[in-house]
Specification:
The chain is an alpha/beta fold and 349 residues long. The chain has helices at 16-27, 39-48, 70-74, 89-96, 121-128, 146-150, 164-174, 187-209, 214-234, 239-242, 245-256, 261-270, 275-279, 287-302, 307-317, 322-330, 340-343; strands at residues 8-12, 31-35, 64-67, 79-82, 106-108, 137-141, 155-161, 179-184. The protein starts with 7 loop residues before the first strand and ends in a 6-residue tail after the last helix.
Length: 349
Amino acid sequence: MIARPIKTVSVIGAGSWGTALARLLACKGYTIRLWAHELDVVESIRSTRRNEMYLPDFPLPDSLSAMGSLAEVVHGTDLLLLAVPSHAMHAILEQLRPHLADPLPITIATKGIEENSFHLMSNIVESLLPQPWHPFVTILSGPSFAREVCQEKPTTILLAGHTSDLVTQLQHVFLTPQFRVYAGHDMIGAQIGGALKNVMAIASGIVDGLELGFNTRAALITRGLAEMIRLGVAMGADVSTLYGLSGLGDLVLTCTGSLSRNYTVGLKLGQGSTLEEILSHTSTVAEGIRTTRAASGLAQRHHIEMPIVDGVHQVLFEGMDPRQAVANLMNRAAKVETDRALYSSTPQR
């Protein structure tokens, strides 16, 4: 299955990541319509050619138009690129649905899990759009700070979808000499990796805020990957996906990079700030906060152990002191490192 030639792309969500992807595609020559929830962002782009709220340092090409109307932004488009916060995905799609006629490609760039339903973003799209749309859904995920993409620093990312011809077509839509796109089929693994790494980034920030050192951070990343794999396999992911760009790659980036919003939340928690204080001083979304609730719920649903997720949940929502949460992790009963049954599980698609 190959979609019609792609000339116009509608990007839904003008945060830093949506704006960075819109800018990348506009620089490639595509006609871009960027929808923003905030009218201030729309006016800022129209008047200054910059997203002054979320990505102020980078000028936006004239081929990029900012819009506040969902009906206007999707009219006659060839590709929908969804980059809204995970908690807004359901509501935005419900508003979009009346304006969508024939199926067209949908690429999801949002990294998160719906907090109350525990739905992946693809589950939300498929629940709200008719079955003929489902083969057109793909996932874009991997280690990619928006600012560095705009700076044209080499970046590699995964595009996953069930329809290989469509994935190949969209792979070349996004591909540039500085933005390398790998093709994959495992949409579940791509989404689990992209969502869970945000929880681990909060934990990594806590470790650094407590000044516990590089040994501790390395252990956190390694055991965090094990938890991601444990949940991913339980939900039908391919283990190799979680060892790849959208799993291990994104995990390393967000657990060590100061540009990560989730790492910054953890860092401030480790330094003594409360979650309420942190949230009161930021306008950006740290997806890991909501994803922690969802991951904790999924661990219970699938009867698996995720002690790092549990520790982050206790710090964020149960008032536990971060240092006590780390102590609890270190004082768990002795274990073997590798669960051979887990890693030899047959992946599902």
